[in-house]
Design brief:
Largest sheet: 6 strands, antiparallel, barrel
Order of helices and strands: HEEEEEEH
Number of domains: 1
Structural class: alpha+beta
CATH topology: Thrombin, subunit H
CATH architecture: Beta Barrel
Helix content: 10-25%
Radius of gyration: 16 Å
Oligomer: single chain
Length: 124
C-alpha cells in the first residue's frame, strides 16, 4: 500500500489526549445560563455542539464554567476560540448545529489540578 507524501506531511499528533465525557459534563458560557453538553475534553481544551440561533460566541477571550448535572460549577476557565464550524447538516437539515472548539488559556496550577480531577471523574 502506497501512502501519498502529501498525506504523510499533513499528519498531526495531538499534544493532549481527548476524552469523551461519560457522565453529564456541561459548559456554561459567560453571560449565559444555558448548559451545553461537552463533546470532548482534554487538558488543552474542549469542544461542544450547540444550536445556532444567531447569537455569536466571539473569537476573543472569555470565561466558561464546567458543570456536572448535579451541584455548582466546577471551574471557571479562560479560553480562546479555535474553531466554530457548522456541523450536522445531513442529520439536522432544518437546524443550524455548530461545533465550537476552544483552547484553554493561562491555566493556574490549581486550575490544572481541578481540570485533571474533572477529566478523571467525568471522562470515559
Amino acid at each position: 500500500m502506497i501512502i501519498p507524501l502529501k498525506r504523510l506531511l499533513a499528519f498531526k499528533v495531538r499534544r493532549y489526549r481527548r476524552y469523551r465525557p461519560r457522565n453529564n459534563l456541561f459548559v456554561i458560557l459567560e453571560h449565559s445560563r444555558a448548559k451545553i453538553p461537552v463533546g470532548d475534553i482534554s487538558m488543552g481544551g474542549l469542544s461542544f455542539y450547540y444550536l445556532d440561533k444567531g447569537a455569536k460566541i466571539g473569537k476573543g477571550t472569555y470565561e466558561l464554567k464546567l458543570a456536572t448535572s448535579q451541584g455548582p460549577p466546577l471551574a471557571e476557565i479562560t479560553f480562546t476560540t479555535v474553531s466554530d464550524n457548522e456541523a450536522g447538516r445531513l442529520i439536522f437539515q432544518k437546524q443550524k448545529i455548530k461545533r465550537h472548539s476552544v483552547r484553554f488559556k493561562n491555566l493556574t496550577k490549581d486550575q490544572k489540578e481541578r481540570l485533571k480531577s474533572i477529566i478523571r471523574q467525568c471522562a470515559a
